[in-house]
Amino acid sequence: MEAEQVVEKILADAKAEAEKIKKQADEKEAAEQAKLTEQLDEYKKQTQSLARKAAKDKKLHLLAAGRMDIAKEFLGEKRKILDEVFAQAQQQLRNLPDEEYCKFMTKLMLEAVETGDEEVIIDNEETRIDQKFIKQINRELGPGYKGNLRLADERQNLGGGFILRRGRIKNNISFDVLLAQARKELEIELAKELFEN
To answer: What is the layout of strands, in order, in the sheet containing 119-123?
Structure first.
């Protein structure tokens, strides 16, 4: 073989080897490209799924926050109404006709008396609970009680009602306290209503 033929043979073999390597590289690149495309598609699906979930979570969060805001406004309005109702109730209690007021105070006092020897502290402006009223209560207390209730010299700003005092123990039956207790119970109901929804 001549040198020229040997060189051509080496070049032909090298060219064939180069084509073989190039073909393998192209196949490998195509496989990697297919794999990459598949991964990108999977990532795209996951991203879309996460975006939908995030949007749904955000929507649910916004709806929940909106419902809570509406419930707070509703509760605020109920509180305003309660303020008005309890202010009117206190005014109506103070303005009861004498007979009704005395019946109401009698009922409250008979229920509140523990021993029958308490002092009765009344409001600064009170005119309907007097010695005659206390005498009547003492008669109604009946057996089992001492029947020694007495009006205290001290008066307080109670807004109506009374305080029964025995030593250092006081039982406050003022309108403010009675209405505050009733309001507290109603506000507990309102809070339950707010947080149930």
So the answer is: 150-156, 119-123, 161-166, 169-174
| Backbone φ/ψ region at 161: left (φ over 0), alpha (ψ -120 to 50), beta | left
Q: Tell me: do 108 and 181 sit in the same domain.
A: yes
Q: Do 148 and 104 belong to one domain?
A: yes
Is residue 195 one of the residues assigned to a domain?
no
How many Å apart are CA 96 and CA 90, to the nearest integer?
10
List, as one string, the DSSP characters of 50-112: HHHHHHHHHHHHHHHHHHHHHHHHHHHHHHHHHHHHHHHHHHHHHTS-HHHHHHHHHHHHHHH
Tell me which residue range forms the domain holding 64: 1-95
118 and 180, same domain (yes or no): yes
Going by their DSSP bridges, the two strands 119-123 and 161-166 should be labelled as antiparallel
pLDDT tens digits for range 127-156:
888 899 988 888 888 776 777 888 988 898
Cα separations (Å) of 53 from 58, 59, 65, 74? 8, 10, 18, 31
Report the run of H or E that residue 136 belongs to, with start and end. Answer: helix 131-141
Residue pair 160/122 in contact by the 8 Å Cβ criterion: no
The pTM assigned to this predicted structure is 0.58
Q: Are strands 161-166 and 169-174 parallel, antiparallel or unpaired?
A: antiparallel
Distance in angstroms (rounded) separating the CA atoms of residues 162 and 110: 12
| Same domain assignment for residues 36 and 1 | yes
